Amino acid sequence: SQLEAELSRVKAHLKSTEEYIHAHQMLLSPIRKLPPETLAEIFMHCVLAADSVRSLQEAPLLLTIICRDWRRVAIDTPLLWQSLHFYLPPHLNQDALSQRLAGISLWLERSGSLPLSISF
């Protein structure tokens, strides 16, 4: 009875330890060791192909939702934000229009003092 109790305790501890290791394996990922400048350069290749659109499905906005570090690097890289394509359909209500305009304003702020390429 005591051996079974001890075995159960050890198995529970093993399971807890395995879960802890699994939860923290992402912290050991090689990409986390890249300097921010290198990561920013990689990010630039994500947006070179076309005009950036305000979509969480595409860079640069997509890069801001991966993790805190990627968000910081993406926001702090004005070159990612120097091109913007947006669409303002005529049927938008006032709230939706205000949200879009706020998003566009934030995008333009992130571009810093770089020359802009804007299409709509």
Summarize this structure as a short list of keywords or feature phrases.
mainly alpha; 120 residues; 5% strand; elongated; 50% helix; two-stranded parallel sheet; 4 helices
Structure summary:
With 120 residues, the chain is mainly α. The chain is 50% helix and 5% strand.
In the sheet with the most strands, the strands line up as 1-2
Strand elements, count = 2
Report the uncertain regions.
Answer: none
Beta-strand proportion: 5-15%
From the alpha-carbon coordinates, what is the Rg to the nearest angstrom?
Answer: 22 Å
Question: What's the shape?
Answer: elongated
Q: Helical segment tally?
A: 4
Q: How many strands, what sense, and barrel or not for the largest sheet?
A: 2 strands, parallel
Write the element-wise H/E pattern from the N-terminal end onward: HHHEHE
State the end-to-end CA separation. 74 Å
- On the 0 to 100 scale, the average pLDDT is 89
Task: Report the structural category.
Answer: mainly alpha
Helical content, roughly?
A: 40-55%
Structure, explained:
The protein is mainly alpha-helical. 50% of the residues lie in helices and 5% in strands. The chain has four helices and two strands. The chain has a two-stranded parallel sheet. Strand 1 (83-85), helix 4 and strand 2 (117-119) form a beta-alpha-beta unit. This is F-box domain-containing protein.
